[in-house]
Structure formats: structure tokens, C-alpha cells
Automatic annotation (TrEMBL):
Its cofactor is Zn(2+). Belongs to the creatininase superfamily. It holds the Pfam family Creatininase. InterPro entries: Creatininase-like_sf (IPR024087), Creatininase/forma_Hydrolase (IPR003785). PANTHER family: 2-AMINO-5-FORMYLAMINO-6-RIBOSYLAMINOPYRIMIDIN-4(3H)-ONE 5'-MONOPHOSPHATE DEFORMYLASE, 3-DEHYDRO-SCYLLO-INOSOSE HYDROLASE. The keyword Iron does not apply. The keyword Zinc applies. This is Creatinine amidohydrolase.
């Protein structure tokens, strides 16, 4: 019987991790956030989703799965109660130090998989400015895959291309942690935004009403379970293609 090609780092011992990396030198890092998600979802929503999809991705492909990073680059919620944010430079340093630590004991490729959109912008900067040509490791980054298909399948429209506490995220959470979802408080909310939104200092915190951006009332557990599988399937294919391109799979 062949050995599994995935391992949860936070639940494993040092010898187990060393043995795993010796035969499978690749890792997946879930990047989450702790921030408001309306009146019906917990502040750990992005982290819970990122961790779950990262684990399912590794099970369908390969990799050491790191514990989720619960603090994100969440400037858009700065000053909003129940929301935490790292500043840009601190987040860049965290990404750099994570990559450096993993590379120092043999990891050859890392997938920084985010459950919070703004994180990816900072990872890109870290890769270009502090990791590329400085640390011997290959980096893949971005939100989990399959989001376009989720949006096309959803029964509600998105809000200016953003997903936050609406049908998709609420459905994913109903599939993952229904005990944390208060559907009786879910709302439909499409805040008004100025024409220059996204090209000025205006952010989600300036236009929010309830903290929901879309229609959370249409969420179901069945949709969430289907979209979790979709995200994991697409992310695993994306990751494996990257690893094969670098002769690591």
C-alpha cells in the first residue's frame, strides 16, 4: 500500500514531517483573515474556507498542509469592529519568512492559497521583491480556483465582482461549519458605491450597510458542498500542473 501524498503539519510530529518532505517536498499554505462577515457568519470565515479547500486540494494532489494563517491584509476593514489587519510590510515579511523557513528544511514548492482576496496582492509583491531569485523555492499563489464557475452557478449576482458574506461564502460555511452560521440573520444587501469605487481611497468599509455584499439568503448547504468539491478539483489540477512544470510531480 502506497504512502499518502498529503500530511497535515499541525497534527504531525517532526519525524513524520521530515519523512514526508523527503519524499514529497511541496507544501500548501492556507491564508485566511479575521474580519467581519455580516450579522450571520463568524469572523474566521475566510480562514475556515481556506483551510478546508487546502486540505481537500492536497488530498486530490499532494503536499504538506500548513495550519491556516488567521490574520490577513484586510485594510478595507480597518477600524471596523471585529476585524483585524496586518499592515502591508508585515504581511510581506510573514510570507517571506514562511517561504524561507519551509525552504530551509527541504520544501521545493509552495502554494499560498488564499480565502481572502486582498492577501494575494501582497503575496505577489513578496514573491517579486523578497523571494524570487533570493530563496530556492517555487511559489504558486492566489485565491482557491473555481470561483468563476461558482459565480456563474449562483442564484444571485455578485457585488462589483467581490464575494463577501453572500451566497457563495455562506453556502461554503453551511457545508463546513453549519453550527457557526446564523441563517435567520442572513440578508440581501447590495450597497451603493460611487462611480470611482476601486480607484480611490473608498473601500468596502466606507459603503457597507450590514457587512453583507450580495444575497446571503439564497445560500444552501448543498450548494456549498458542490462548490467545495469544485474548488478542490480545480485547485488540485492547477497545483499539479504547476508542480509538473517544475518536475516536482
Amino acid at each position: 500500500m502506497s504512502e499518502p501524498m498529503f500530511l497535515e503539519m499541525g497534527r504531525a510530529t517532526r519525524p513524520e514531517i521530515e519523512a514526508f518532505v523527503a519524499r514529497c517536498p511541496v507544501a500548501i499554505v492556507p491564508l485566511g483573515s479575521t474580519e467581519q462577515h455580516g450579522p450571520h457568519l463568524p469572523t474566521a470565515t475566510d480562514t475556515i474556507i481556506a483551510e478546508a479547500i487546502a486540505k481537500r486540494t492536497a488530498e486530490r494532489s499532494m503536499g504538506l498542509i500548513l495550519p491556516g494563517q488567521p490574520y490577513g491584509y484586510a485594510w478595507v476593514w480597518k477600524g471596523v469592529p471585529a476585524s483585524l489587519t496586518m499592515n502591508f510590510d508585515s504581511y510581506v515579511k510573514m510570507i517571506h519568512d514562511t517561504a524561507e523557513s519551509l525552504a530551509s528544511w527541504g520544501v521545493k514548492a509552495i502554494y499560498f492559497m488564499s480565502g481572502h482576496g486582498a492577501n494575494s496582492q501582497v503575496v505577489k509583491h513578496a514573491l517579486r521583491e523578497t523571494i524570487s531569485d533570493k530563496i530556492d523555492v517555487k511559489i504558486l499563489y492566489g485565491m482557491y480556483e473555481g470561483i468563476r464557475e461558482m459565480v456563474s452557478e449562483a442564484d444571485s449576482d455578485d457585488w462589483l465582482g467581490d464575494l463577501h458574506a453572500e451566497e457563495i461564502e455562506t453556502s461554503l460555511m453551511l457545508a463546513l461549519a453549519p453550527e457557526l452560521v446564523q441563517m435567520d440573520k442572513a440578508v440581501r444587501d447590495y450597497p451603493d458605491a460611487p462611480a470611482d469605487y476601486g480607484k480611490s481611497e473608498e473601500s468596502m468599509r466606507h459603503v457597507m450597510n450590514t457587512g453583507v455584499f450580495g444575497d446571503a439568503t439564497l445560500a444552501t448547504r448543498e450548494k456549498g458542498e458542490r462548490w467545495l468539491d469544485l474548488a478542490a478539483d480545480r485547485s488540485a489540477a492547477f497545483w499539479l500542473n504547476f508542480l509538473k512544470r517544475h518536475d516536482l510531480a
